[in-house]
Amino acid sequence: MAYANPAKYLKKGGNDLLLDRKIALVLMAVFLLFYAVSYMYPPETVSFPRFLLWIFLGLSILLFTFPRKHPDYSLKIVFSREKVVSILLLIAYAVIFPIIGFFTTTFAFAVLYMWIFNHSGIRQYIIVTAIYLIVVYFVFQKWLYVWFPEGLLM
Amino acid sequence: MDINVIDIAMRVFSISNILLAAGGTLMGIIFGALPGFTAAMGVAVLLPITFGMDPASGLILLGSLFGGAMYGGSISAILINTPGTPAAAATTLDGHPMAKKGLAGEALREAVFASFLGGIFGVTVLLLFSPPLAKISLMFGPPEYFLLALFGLTIIATISERAVFKGLIAGVLGLLISTIGMDPLLGIPRFTFGVVNLIDGVQLVPAMIGLFSIPETLDLIRSYVNKDTDTYVMTPELKKIKVGFPSLKHILTFLPIYIRSSIIGTGVGILPGAGGSIASFMAYNETKRASKHPEKFGTGISDGIAASESANNAMASGALIPMLTLGVPGDSVAAIMMGGFWSMACSQVLSYFHVTLILCIPLFLLSIWLM
């Protein structure tokens, strides 16, 4: 296992941080968030989570101090347009489907998702998604009585 | 108990029961392969259907569904890097890398055969050693379960040996996430951020699907953006998948893995509360420790799949041991099945079930190969 020389990388600016260091910073932010929130609860309820949080912080500091230097590790986190769109679509789907309903939202998002990443053949996407959802609806909801979230529509 | 084996065999080996076993196995595979639909859900859904059936037929349907779902989880684990059931989580470690190398057929074959052997082993133990093993499971108290949990955490070190800090951080993060929800001692909601749905905590199945499938989605997008072909290498290979029967040499080489993992799976299965995911990760860990080439684990080798799949199928039978002998279910699926047993002819359950499972496992294998 090859670890980078910390002194060498600490001299560099933020943009040159190793990927492990960026992850460690995010983890420290998670620690701060959870630790701040823990004051909202009685101390006896959060004593174990706080104990875990201190271990978590210790390990994050170790990760920051001894980042792993590996040829496969990229020095930058690449945010492509497609990745951002994809993450936003996933979040939107999770938020919207309990409101609108599973089947309508899944149909809209599945077709949209496939169309965004492959601009041709929208009719094919509509047909495939519709057949899939009709099968799921009849097999699970009508035959096996496994209910999917229903909102304003279905 | 006076068991008339011939009478039981005559009733179990009818055409309708064989068809039920095949159908139950197929449904189990579908439930297992679909991330989000677990074996427990499949058994719960089919339970009302069995109320109107002969007890033997009902048990055949539920038993075959349980076995099928345990295998089915590996299909999505291997092909799309998202385990269909929590028990198949360890299968992704080597299964999906094999699929990426274009060896999806070989990975699926290993999963089928390991599941088959694990199932056979578990059923044999269920038939021959149920009463003494059930007594051992009763000897497990809080200190033993604490040690088991601690042992589970030590597995992190093996799985993440190439990034130990990150492995430990992931383990602690997992423990932290498990504190979200109602405090079990004081009944006060913790870290729910005002979201009512979080009061019950973060459930394993949605967490597992999210953690496995979202990175896979992003990875596929990265490949699409970079026009990589490595991610799609399995696509043309899928057309050539031939599951088939492994060679005798392969079976003999892997026999210690199958036996060791099946023993671990059965052992974990008889402990109430310990599920298939613990069994498969423990078996994976032990196989890696015993291997002559531990560094290859996680890069896509059959050993990892053999360990994980034989353990989780052996666990399925193991979970039924305390349920059939003591009325204490070994896992959630066994608990739901037990509810069904009370609605059937309870006096006939034990004798029928032994023969039922023997019937289910070969059919389970046969139906997979026919697919």
Can you give a write-up of this model?
The complex is a heterodimer of chains A (154) and B (371). Chain A is mainly α and 154 residues long. Chain A has helices spanning 6-10, 19-38, 43-65, 81-100, 102-117, 122-143. Chain A has 2 domains: 6-65; 81-143, no CATH class. Chain A has 6 helices and no strands. In chain A, α4 (81-100) runs antiparallel to α5 (102-117). Chain A is flat and about 55 Å long. Chain B has one domain (5-139, 243-370). Chain B has helices spanning 5-12, 15-33, 39-50, 55-80, 89-100, 104-138, 142-159, 164-178, 204-226, 234-238, 248-269, 276-290, 302-326, 332-343, 346-370, and strands spanning 181-182, 189-190. Chain B has a two-stranded antiparallel sheet. Chain B is globular and about 60 Å long. The chains are: A mainly alpha (154), B mainly alpha (371). Chain A binds chain B through residues 1, 20, 23, 27, 30, 34, 37-38, 41-42, 44-46, 48-49, 52-53, 55-56, 59-60, 62-63, 66, 68, 78, 80, 82-83, 86-87, 90, 117, 144-146, and chain B through 37, 41, 45-46, 162-166, 168-169, 172-173, 175-176, 179, 183, 185-186, 188, 190-191, 193, 214, 217-218, 221-222, 224-225.
For the report, how would you describe the main beta sheet of chain A?
Answer: none
**Poorly predicted runs of 5 or more residues of chain B:** none
- Average pLDDT of chain A, to the nearest integer? 78
Indicate the percent of residues in helices of chain A: 55-70%
Characterize the biggest β-sheet of chain B.
2 strands, antiparallel
Measured by DSSP, the beta-strand proportion of chain A falls in: under 5%
Shape assignment of chain A:
flat
- Topology as H/E string of chain B? HHHHHHHHEEHHHHHHH
How much helix is in the residues of chain B? Answer: over 70%
Supply the helix-strand structural class of chain B. mainly alpha
Mean pLDDT over the full residue set of chain B = 78
Number of strands of chain B: 2
Enumerate the spans of chain A where pLDDT stays under 50 for 5 or more consecutive residues.
1-16
Radius of gyration based on Cα positions of chain B: 20 Å
Helix/strand structural class of chain A: mainly alpha
How many domains of chain A? The number is 2
Distance between the termini of chain A: 52 Å
Overall form of chain B = globular
In DSSP terms, counting alpha (H) and pi (I) runs of 4 or more, how many helices of chain B?
15
What's the Cα radius of gyration of chain A? Answer: 23 Å
